[in-house]
């Protein structure tokens, strides 16, 4: 049996080496898949090996960013960390991360494992690897045809949590009723993070809110303030379920071209106030930063160190990844569900320069085969600022559907271009008259588009000119 | 003259971009200079069905659907009367199932529907999911309608007229080759995508019916449907190549 294990690891490591040679290695879960086929109990070998603990990050949006932020902080604080950095978050991706860091006899030498885990894969992964901490970012509708409805996804995560040892610690988004409910339902202790309800952050868009109904009594939830989607200051008038006061709270959040900042107030874990700066745009990144910060504090990292690490954060592929083409600023963003797409649109509107937009939509399994979610995205906001936009280039397997969506949102037909070929679509965006080009792509369109961009443009870090000196 | 659209329970029934159906209907009115307005009616709010020209009911999750059967039960007589007088209705997915006689759960329990139309739905073993092309006859002309289906229930029509026959995909139950249902000016379908934007022939037919009921029997002005046509044909071609 031991021989089979070594075989499995050998095959996986050869696959890793080969894919590295061919330059296709990033985000791959193939080595893990091969190893699991040869040795299905593989993950069990790694259980208990990280010396200080295992942290899993699940939820719909922000998993990759949050998990990268946390592992960066832990590395910065001097720990050895195993992580699935490029968002390969199924059981095969988790296996790949462990195999990569381990010897041929599955020995690990690390303090922590920081693992991003897909919601649907969470029960399967936690069967083998017991996390000490579980962070849940949020629950939004995502790729419905793969998982059935959102309720089913949540109950899968909930059931898996209930199977974990009692001393597991949850790190939960206080502002999402669908997440905040988890501590009461599992009886497990939780650290809450959230954004202080502030009129200035309140969004009017009522589209694609998930939690209109109280998870406990079925009554309708009432909101003082919506931050975005169903996140906000909620309360159930019928049974009293309400947002709980967060242990870690962000105050005075502002977001612009150079990044996002806020002040963090901590109560439970450590008392104090710290400035937070993250060199990526969008309020949702404050949530990601807060989650990572909360987890780091609960693991004993000094708050100042955590904040400093966050201020030098470099986003992963397609998480507002920045490029430069001549004088043109080019941003690549992954879009996969209405909430994330709405956030990306808000970031576009915050840029005042005239811009060309490229949207590449695919409908492979990894993108979600059903693209009707595009109609839950609030593209109508773009038409209020049409003078800001030069051309809308629609690409990918569902280029026509994207163009149709924009047409019904009110974008004039003459500004719409359909170009299924990525190469020509990217070229059109780069050659556009706008000073800025923004590229949005679904999962399987992201990699080919990024590859073309890397050939044609230079990758830059948005926060490069703002990184504070580390003394 | 103003066409008035009622979007029923948009707060609860908004799965799968259903909002797009209301948008397609209203945009195609506006592009022709036809005045149109939308009223959103939510749980517990009063509604006079007779005042509307087009009623849209979308799909929701089981939890949400259970909530509103009770609410709609109180209004069903008024709705039935309006339907008999030619109210144009589009009901999608969960909204479709709601209009039938009952839904039978896997445990054999019958959850009564509104019995507006004489069909019934039974829980199937597997969800029926995927892209669909059907052929429907609208105003005497055959047209290909495309969309995406994702439903656990299998619907049987009891002799009711279907919306069309399935060319590719599952349709009502994956067995008899029919998709959707029609009764007077009520159109039911499992197809979202959403349905109306990519099927402008159907959308315009609904607008024509709504106008006719108001006493305006005019021919609709033709619109530039290039993108709609390309999007529709791309899916028809993709699915016919698959075979
Ligand atoms: Zn309640």
UniProtKB/TrEMBL annotation, chain A:
One of its GO terms (molecular function) is carbon-nitrogen ligase activity on lipid II. Pathway: Cell wall biogenesis; peptidoglycan biosynthesis. It catalyses: beta-D-GlcNAc-(1->4)-Mur2Ac(oyl-L-Ala-gamma-D-Glu-L-Lys-D-Ala-D-Ala)-di-trans,octa-cis-undecaprenyl diphosphate + L-glutamine + ATP + H2O = beta-D-GlcNAc-(1->4)-Mur2Ac(oyl-L-Ala-D-isoglutaminyl-L-Lys-D-Ala-D-Ala)-di-trans,octa-cis-undecaprenyl diphosphate + L-glutamate + ADP + phosphate + H(+); beta-D-GlcNAc-(1->4)-Mur2Ac(oyl-L-Ala-gamma-D-O-P-Glu-L-Lys-D-Ala-D-Ala)-di-trans,octa-cis-undecaprenyl diphosphate + NH4(+) = beta-D-GlcNAc-(1->4)-Mur2Ac(oyl-L-Ala-D-isoglutaminyl-L-Lys-D-Ala-D-Ala)-di-trans,octa-cis-undecaprenyl diphosphate + phosphate + H(+); beta-D-GlcNAc-(1->4)-Mur2Ac(oyl-L-Ala-gamma-D-Glu-L-Lys-D-Ala-D-Ala)-di-trans,octa-cis-undecaprenyl diphosphate + ATP = beta-D-GlcNAc-(1->4)-Mur2Ac(oyl-L-Ala-gamma-D-O-P-Glu-L-Lys-D-Ala-D-Ala)-di-trans,octa-cis-undecaprenyl diphosphate + ADP. Transmembrane segments: none annotated. Residues 334-446 form the Lipid II isoglutaminyl synthase (glutamine-hydrolyzing) subunit MurT C-terminal domain. GO terms for biological process: cell wall organization; peptidoglycan biosynthetic process; regulation of cell shape. It comes from the Bacteria. Its EC number is 6.3.5.13. Keywords: ATP-binding, Cell shape, Cell wall biogenesis/degradation, Ligase, Metal-binding, Nucleotide-binding, Peptidoglycan synthesis, Zinc. Zn(2+) binds at residues 214, 217, 236, 239. The active site is at 370. It is an enzyme of class 6 (ligase). It holds the Pfam family MurT_C. Residues 57-294 form the Mur ligase central domain. The lipid II isoglutaminyl synthase complex catalyzes the formation of alpha-D-isoglutamine in the cell wall lipid II stem peptide. The MurT subunit catalyzes the ATP-dependent amidation of D-glutamate residue of lipid II, converting it to an isoglutamine residue. Forms a heterodimer with GatD. HAMAP family: Lipid_II_synth_MurT (MF_02214). Belongs to the MurCDEF family. MurT subfamily. This is Lipid II isoglutaminyl synthase (glutamine-hydrolyzing) subunit MurT. It comes from Sporotomaculum syntrophicum.
From TrEMBL, chain B:
One of its GO terms (biological process) is peptidoglycan biosynthetic process. It catalyses: beta-D-GlcNAc-(1->4)-Mur2Ac(oyl-L-Ala-gamma-D-Glu-L-Lys-D-Ala-D-Ala)-di-trans,octa-cis-undecaprenyl diphosphate + L-glutamine + ATP + H2O = beta-D-GlcNAc-(1->4)-Mur2Ac(oyl-L-Ala-D-isoglutaminyl-L-Lys-D-Ala-D-Ala)-di-trans,octa-cis-undecaprenyl diphosphate + L-glutamate + ADP + phosphate + H(+); L-glutamine + H2O = L-glutamate + NH4(+). The keyword Cell wall biogenesis/degradation applies. It holds the Pfam family GATase_3. Substrate binds at residue 127. Residues 4-199 form the CobB/CobQ-like glutamine amidotransferase domain. Its EC number is 6.3.5.13, 3.5.1.2. Gene3D superfamilies: 3.40.50.880. Keywords: Cell shape, Cell wall biogenesis/degradation, Glutamine amidotransferase, Hydrolase, Ligase, Peptidoglycan synthesis. The keyword Cell wall biogenesis/degradation applies. Pathway: Cell wall biogenesis; peptidoglycan biosynthesis. Belongs to the CobB/CobQ family. GatD subfamily. HAMAP family: Lipid_II_synth_GatD. This is Lipid II isoglutaminyl synthase (glutamine-hydrolyzing) subunit GatD. It comes from Sporotomaculum syntrophicum.
